[in-house]
Amino acid sequence: MVNPSVQRLGSSIDVPSVQSLAASIANPAHVPPRYVRPEAKADPVASDGESELPVIDFSRLLHHRFSREESTKLHHACADWGFFQLINHGVPDDAMEKMKADIVEFFKLPLEEKKAFAQLPNSLEGYGQAFVVSDDQKLDWADMLYLITRPHQSRNIDLWPAQPLTFRDSLSCYSMELKSVAATLLELIAKNLGIAPEEFSTIFQDQPQGVRINYYPPCPRADEVLGLSPHTDGSGLTLLLQVNDVEGLHIKKGGSWFPVKPLPGALIANIGDIIEILSNGVYKSVEHRTIINAKEERLSIAAFHGPREDSMIGPLAEIVKGCESKYVSISYGEFIKAYFSVKLDGRRLMDSLKL
Ligand code: OGA
Ligand code: NI
């Protein structure tokens, strides 16, 4: 039974598995034109050493001697970058390693076995693709497995891979660990923004969480395709773990794409659209994209932490205080429906919510 809240997210037009397509391409000329994106190599990419993604030490955020200093760093990271690397986050290595190993195993299964967990019609949960809304739209070079992990009653366990055998346990454990990290970060973010903690905890009550596992196959025309089109995340806070050592995440910074080089064991955190709106634009939901490697597959796991579906999302009164509200107020249910009904297209949806 698919939980009704998932069906309300909308659906995506069925397109072939990119993993299977990639495996069948003998010659670069055979990459179908629907995947070829001139902008992939046209847009400028920042070179090494131009600037550095902020690194936030979670253990210092919690330490009575260092928390103030580290919280200030966190504030600047959220305001200036919208992205940061999170180290010493306390998620046990074991929880991360088991999750990674099971994801790699899942994607090695034959297509038919993966399809046992495919998205059902009119739903976005499960194995497949999202954001395909028209038959002539360009396509991303990626497959994904999207699962609602929290609150518990929203889980559609039938769509959670039963192979490898440990997958469900690994994901439950990973989800719980990440939820705790996100909850602490959200508390500190509320504090940094000068919001009463209850206000944030009501909006993010029960810590709704969805996990998207991204699988990016190699492509012989790697610099002409995109893994994920430029987008912002429709979440409050996203925590991303790169599963293998292949890099590919780019974030928009001062008009060019800035390649992220994850530190070993770090989580890449980013502010999503919801916190940008709640903070009246003080914190930024920054555009990002992923690129493809010519020889190696890339995998990542994004944990999205969002508000309760029935919450109203608009700039918070304590932040606006006499100045202008920059965004409309919208229920999260409506927001997320709009998010999934259009293709990934930079900041287009966010711009449409601006006053
Ligand atoms: C996402 C995302 C980046 C990555 O899933 O929203 O931006 O590195 N992923 O896979
Ligand atoms: Ni993203």
TrEMBL record:
Query: Which SUPFAM superfamilies has this protein been placed in?
Result: Clavaminate synthase-like
Family annotation (InterPro entries): DIOX_N, IPNS-like_FE2OG_OXY, IPNS-like_sf, Oxoglu/Fe-dep_dioxygenase_dom, Plant_2OG-oxidoreductases
The GO molecular function terms of this record are: metal ion binding; oxidoreductase activity
Tagged with keyword Metal-binding: yes
Q: Which PROSITE patterns match?
A: FE2OG_OXY
Boundaries of every Fe2OG dioxygenase domain copy: 207-307
Source organism, top-level taxon: Eukaryota
Q: Name one Pfam family in it.
A: DIOX_N
UniProt keywords, alphabetically: Iron, Metal-binding, Oxidoreductase
Q: Which family does it belong to?
A: Belongs to the iron/ascorbate-dependent oxidoreductase family.
* PANTHER family linked: OXOGLUTARATE/IRON-DEPENDENT DIOXYGENASE
Name of the protein in question: Fe2OG dioxygenase domain-containing protein
